[in-house]
UniProtKB/TrEMBL annotation:
Naturally occurring in which organism (per UniProt): Ferranicluibacter rubi
Basic and acidic residues biased stretches: 79-101
Pfam families reported for this sequence: ParD_antitoxin (PF03693)
Record protein name field: Type II toxin-antitoxin system ParD family antitoxin
Region annotated Disordered, chain positions: 78-101
Length: 101
């Protein structure tokens, strides 16, 4: 097995996790960290695949100038913000109990 050398900061973090009772052993702390790393790596690979598939299918945007890219990003951000701040759906007359106002 490969020797593992940890910084003082990493050792202190592991020790803190053990003292809090979050993990029983240092091996458990390392194992949990590796699990998170594996999950993040899998998610990144999944997102890369989605991007590659999108490009292959022609779902991409090209820009002539950097400023156009900035405008596009800001427009997407505004659209998302608007969607988040949109009021909840108000029920129509027929959706309200008794069908009356």
């Amino acid at each position: 097995m490969t020797d593992i050398h940890l910084s003082d900061e990493d050792c202190a973090f592991i020790e803190g996790q053990l003292q809090m009772g979050a993990y029983r052993t240092a091996d458990d702390v390392i194992r949990a960290g590796l699990q998170v790393l594996r999950e993040e790596d899998e998610e990144l690979r999944r997102l890369i695949k989605i991007g590659e598939d999108g490009i292959e299918a022609g779902r991409y945007v090209t820009f002539e100038k950097v400023g156009d890219l900035k405008k596009h990003i800001l427009a997407l951000a505004r659209k998302r913000q608007d969607a988040r701040s949109a009021p909840e759906h108000e029920p129509s007359r027929t959706e309200r109990p008794g069908g009356r106002l």
